[in-house]
Amino acid sequence: MGLGSLVAMSEEVASQGREPAGVEHELSPSIVLPADARLRPWVARDHEGFDEAAFPRGDFVDPATLVTVLAVKVTDQPWHPPVLVNAPSTTFTRVQGPWAPAIVARLAPLGAYKLLGPALSEISGSSYVALEDIVGAEARRLGEQVQSAPTWDERRRLLNDFLLDRATRGPQPSPEVTSAWHLLVRSGGRSTITSVARQVGWSHKHLITRFKQQVGVTPQMAARLVRLSTVWRHLDHEQSWGRIAAESGYADQAHLIREFRHFTGTTPAALTT
């Protein structure tokens, strides 16, 4: 079951005879399931349910992301563990089927640390790790309960309860890392790490160590991905790539395209033609 950030990118060439990844801006869930209001600080958006009809016909490409995805299968399928977690990644990943219907939660940066603790930095860059390997029997029980639940609403309740329990017992992100994250977001990824470290009162080295532990990537990588997120917001507007590059903080159009290809496996133009 490949879910990741559920933004499907195109790849120009199919490999080993498989169908190429489709050019889809984002996979559409079968149903949107409200996250508990108490989870709002920790989730990127509402939960989503995916049945078999929601998945692509072939492989797709997961772009690099700061979001951590928690996917709980709603049917018993032998090819993957019942609960999977996909932590922040620094490059794109080709995701292969087969797919399994699932309910999906997207954890915001810092929210994933509440769920996973220090293990977040250890699994970052790994594609779809069994949650049971991180939190133990709790994950197995969640998988069993969700698979036994007859409705999406009941699955939503179980997922909300699990996340709320983990958030209550999980570690709290440090005020300095929280401030550093917000500084990067407010600047659109343009703030230098030296400037951010000075503003939060830490050394450059200490900020990098603690930030990676609690966000899953280094502050410099987070800044690059935050900057890329500003490009996504421009894709549906009729603007020149040079102007988008300038408004998003890139040196020039070539710089934007290099970064976009590194993180997504394709070019911005491929998504708009």
UniProtKB/TrEMBL annotation:
This is Helix-turn-helix domain-containing protein. Residues 192-273 form the HTH araC/xylS-type domain. Residues 1-21 are annotated as: Disordered. The keyword Transcription applies. One of its GO terms (molecular function) is DNA-binding transcription factor activity. InterPro entries: AraC_XylS_family_regulators, Homeodomain-like_sf, HTH_AraC. The keyword DNA-binding applies. It comes from the Bacteria. Keywords: DNA-binding, Transcription, Transcription regulation. PROSITE patterns: HTH_ARAC_FAMILY_2 (PS01124). PANTHER family: BLL1074 PROTEIN, HTH-TYPE TRANSCRIPTIONAL ACTIVATOR RHAS-RELATED.
